[in-house]
Design a protein that fits this description.
single chain; alpha/beta; Urease, subunit C, domain 1; TIM Barrel; 2 domains; nine-stranded parallel sheet; seven-stranded mixed sheet; 16 helices; binds guanine; binds zinc ion
Amino acid sequence: MLQRHLILGQTLAFTADPFHVPLGEAVRHERRGALLIEGGRIAALGATDALRAANPEAPVTDYGDALILPGFVDAHVHYPQTAIIASWGKRLIDWLNGYTFPEEMRFADPAYAAETAARYLDLVLAEGTTTVCSYCTIHPESVDAFFAAAEARGMRAVAGKTCMDRNAPEGLRDTAHSAYDDSKALLERWHGRGRLSYAVTPRFSPTSTPEQLEALGALWAEHPDCLMQTHLSEQTDEVAWVASLFPDARDYLDTYERFGLLGPGAVFGHAIYLKDRERARLKEADAALVHCPTSNTFIGSGLFDMGRAVAARQRVGLATDTGGGSSFSMLRTMAAAYEIGQLSGTPIHPAQLLWLATSGSARALRLDDRIGRLAPGMEADLVVLDLASTSAIAQRAARADDIWQAVFPTIMMGDDRAVRATWVNGRLSGRAGRS
Ligand code: GUN
Ligand code: ZN
């Protein structure tokens, strides 16, 4: 018989997208809520009293006033950049050459890759993140290390071998051929194994020849149930460089589109400097954009236009972009998204921030039928937030009139001290549990 377990606390359950549906209809807040977990899934959701009465035999974990949410979903990260997070003073291209590529070189060593993957996943679990979509390095070993570490923790994860066959140093380049062959072998090994799935991963068009982009387009066409992830229009210098490398392309997006790398399941990181044609094609193709706010300020990229993306009903996810981003925390990432929204004239409501960090990212990764919401049948990945984790937050939350005022100080000022527990696949995760 499957083990049943009751988890008690405040709950927030989204039933619709709060960017498009009034709050009262999009989300249900239960002050004394409960989740019944069974076999790694949410079996029921409701009021504490009702679920306790219906399941008197189930063991109980009571988190009191803490807020139970779906585990955070980080839709764009580079786990190999864990050790170079917060590297000073450079913008994108110099940052890649000066910090990133030398570090990614080290992942030729499987032991280093395994150690970093484990450290990275333990760090994010402590921040309440239960799913990430990661770039690896050009080394197949870096992909094996990442998936093995995610599998060992029971996490749902997406990743792919980063492909680069030009404009990268010796030792960090593959070829069109080997990128296809290695990606295919990795995809066959890992895609659909347990909670893992594969993303075809050209780094960005400056580091791939047209031949490599074409080969990866062909691979994706052969495996359309995989995601395809890459970077798009992050910095103005990069956009100009792409135009010079692809003189025939209509715009940056076209450097992917012409090689079959645009379609449902395409996930584009950053997407700041988009032309009207690109916006229209991204929408038509039902591709996803991933907003990486701490990265966009840290590397000095610019302001993502959430207002336009939402108005177009584009799929939008939220991400740390570790380690171009300056934090492993999705709380910090929501705070940065709020700040960028303010600078762009789009104040993002706490409900919308929480939705982006859970359902929005899950939807961007096409995993929203499995993760990102508290609802019966969904996988039981949870974060439990203490809404008074520091004295500064507690004194502000004490003045709150509703759940949104109660949670917003934690979004803006919270860190891993706010993460009371992280549950993965119906089990308390060892590293984050502080109850
Ligand atoms: N564009 C291409 N590679 C990268 C990367 O590793 N990080 C960021 N932020 N942008 C990129
Ligand atoms: Zn990135």
